[in-house]
Amino acid sequence: MDFGTDFEPLTVQPQEIEALSFELIAQELGEHDFTELQYPVVRRIIHASADFELGRSLVFHPRAVEAGIAAILEGRPIIADVRMVEAGISKARIHRFGGEARVHITDEDVIAEAKERGTTRAIVAMRKACAEAPGGIYAIGNAPTALLELIRLVKEGAARPGLVIGMPVGFVSAAESKDELRKLDIPYITNIGRKGGSTVVVAAVNALSLLAVQQAAERRGGDCK
Amino acid sequence: MDFGTDFEPLTVQPQEIEALSFELIAQELGEHDFTELQYPVVRRIIHASADFELGRSLVFHPRAVEAGIAAILEGRPIIADVRMVEAGISKARIHRFGGEARVHITDEDVIAEAKERGTTRAIVAMRKACAEAPGGIYAIGNAPTALLELIRLVKEGAARPGLVIGMPVGFVSAAESKDELRKLDIPYITNIGRKGGSTVVVAAVNALSLLAVQQAAERRGGDCK
């Protein structure tokens, strides 16, 4: 097809825009208590939301970032609660280590089972994910019921997630589901309050896969010394 | 597969959760200047973001909501800037009127052309969309460059969008691109400032398709009288 030829040269390259954005974020965020390993995740979430209140509300389990990086390097699957989260995950960096992004909410067996049991697809999809990948990375940005079901499965011993990124957004049960998540001693990234959503969860996953790629490169560098 | 049988009955149905959320939003938002037709869009955006500041920052061209509903009823395509937006759009309500959701950012010809011209895929994807569907609904939540290119194409006369939902998020050029959009006399939904993103744009599209379905039902009801 004909795209036209009158393309103006780019005055600013995409990498420069990201660097400038990160500089502005660091200036406006000011002092904080996030660790050196947590900060790249916080920064990418603020970058994706332009919301410092949300950024400051983030809470990390002490092992969260290390565990997330390790899970990606081990090629564990990333389970998204909704298609938007699956769509936003940068696939190339995940596939490099043998991992993949999965979403079960539109699976035919999930839809049929939810209908038969009179329950939500989000709950059934979480059960399916935990049966297939109890040690996966769980990325939940939408349904509090999905997060609450995952917490129940963890307590039952049916799931041992590599990491839970639990940030459902909303006015009913979202904040409460995150309060429950923070009571568990498993690796999690979450936030306090109603905010969250697909964009925020995707930013966290993509920040972690960037860290995993960096760590893999550093290890290879180390091996050569 | 075996989903287990110990499903607890749902104590609250999803429709009730939405109704309760909408009640909380109305209470907390309080007085506002949005019209009766704009409010369902505002409410769904606050529902999807839990962000009243963002909700209050929304700006509608006077014809925006009517034009968006009409464009959906006419089956015009909805062009998303990124895959996340495409993934979040409720397809059934769009397909009912012959429309569809499109995204060109990962098209092979777009990737090749951007590389050859030394420009961004977002710009090339917008040119392709305008060449194929100059009267489409444009839903831009990510790249300010995509919105700026669309504005340029509108000024050139190469595009006459049915509606532009322009809410790219970010620290560099996002707010400025929305300032430019508000100078046009074409139907737009946008906001003031840095916030926005895929979830917000998707909420606007889905609110409009719900209104379109309602309006179609009312018209059918009217025909029967």
From TrEMBL, chains A, B:
Keywords carried by this UniProt record: Cobalamin biosynthesis, Isomerase
State the protein's name: Precorrin-8X methylmutase
The UniProt entry's sequence similarity note says:
Belongs to the CobH/CbiC family.
Q: In which domain of life is the source organism classified?
A: Bacteria
Protein's pathway: Cofactor biosynthesis; adenosylcobalamin biosynthesis
Ranges for domain Cobalamin biosynthesis precorrin-8X methylmutase CobH/CbiC come to 16-209
Q: Which InterPro entries match?
A: Cbl_synth_CobH/CbiC, CobH/CbiC_sf
Point out the coiled-coil segments of this chain.
none
Source taxonomy: Bacteria, Bacillati, Bacillota, Bacilli, Bacillales
Which Pfam families is this protein grouped with? Answer: CbiC
